[in-house]
Design a protein that fits this description.
alpha/beta, TIM Barrel, six-stranded parallel sheet, three-stranded parallel sheet, binds zinc ion
């Protein structure tokens, strides 16, 4: 079962899924850059329609509290486009954690996330289907981030809802896995984000060998890393048999990322990246795993005993 903003769906009904996205976001409080505000709802609608036309049927929207989460808007967008949208509970990373949660420990984070999962977000009655994106800083885990990740793991254990993370440029992935494993969060309910930005193949392989899911989720952000390099790494991981652990997405967070402003758009994975993989000989079966089957497994809520 997967929890969307319009209710529960069967995991078989998720369809082609973008595993890590943002439709409505405001990071300007910290980043001080108007490009990091997505608030044009008509624009969201048309960008999402492009995604649907390219074959996209579902989106995991990871804009949490502190990043400008607006779940009523996500529900409207889902109703208008028929794209399944999953929203989240969680906080991002230092310094994006909202003021009311400063100084919280793991149990306070867990309690808050469990409350949103069980009772809905604010007064909306809308339930989150994922805990995320919970993150760590570049090459370090700040004390508050450690409490946050462990709190997210505890909430996952209590509710059966999976955890998806943010790593900064792919770093600290294995440390995140270790923290979640120490709480016994199952490997098939952990998604370590932004691993396509880690240029150390050894580090990404170390994460893959634990059995968790990883995100190749900044596709098209060629200013961080060219997609050719993402494809080279991905082909290597597929040839080593890790194709059932990889999730794809584009992680758009800026006005300049939208098609209407000349950016890649939410459909870049389907329109450019997948054709490039096919050209390099990736089989249909593997493509279906990457786009459909892996997300269906990763984002399912598990019954806890
Ligand atoms: Zn993100």
């Amino acid at each position: 079962m997967i929890q969307t903003v319009r209710g529960k769906i069967k995991k078989e009904d998720l369809g082609i899924c973008a595993a890590h996205e943002h439709l409505s976001i405001d990071l300007s409080r910290i980043k001080n850059d108007p490009d990091t505000i997505l608030d044009d709802e008509a624009g969201m609608l048309s960008e999402l329609e492009h995604f649907y036309k390219a074959g996209g049927r579902s989106m995991i929207e990871l804009t949490n509290d502190g990043m400008g989460r607006d779940v009523q808007r996500l529900k409207r967008l889902s109703e208008q486009t028929n794209v399944h949208i999953v929203t989240c509970t969680g906080f991002y990373k230092d310094p994006f954690i909202p003021e009311f949660a400063h100084g919280w420990d793991r149990d306070e984070f867990a309690k808050h996330f469990i409350d949103e999962i069980e009772n809905g977000i604010g007064e909306t009655g809308i339930l989150p289907g994922i805990i995320g994106e919970v993150g760590t800083s570049l090459n370090e885990i700040k004390p508050i981030e450690k409490e946050l990740i462990i709190g997210a793991g505890k909430a996952s254990i209590a509710t059966g809802v999976p955890v998806t993370t943010h790593t900064t440029l792919g770093t600290m992935g294995i440390e995140q896995v270790d923290m979640l494993f120490s709480l016994r969060v199952p490997k098939n309910q952990i998604i370590i984000g932004h691993q396509d930005l880690n240029t150390s193949k050894e580090e990404v392989l170390e994460v893959l060998k634990t059995g968790v899911f990883i995100g190749f989720d900044t596709i098209g952000k060629n200013n961080y890393r060219p997609d050719e390099e993402r494809i080279d790494f991905l082909l290597d991981f597929v040839s080593r048999g890790f194709h059932k652990q990889i999730l794809l997405s584009a992680d758009l967070t800026r006005k300049s990322h939208w098609k209407k402003h000349g950016g890649p758009g939410y459909d870049i994975v389907l329109k450019e990246f997948i054709p490039a993989l096919i050209e390099r000989g990736v089989s249909d079966e593997v493509i279906q795993d990457l786009l459909v089957h892996n997300p269906a497994h990763a984002f399912s809520i598990k019954e806890r005993l």
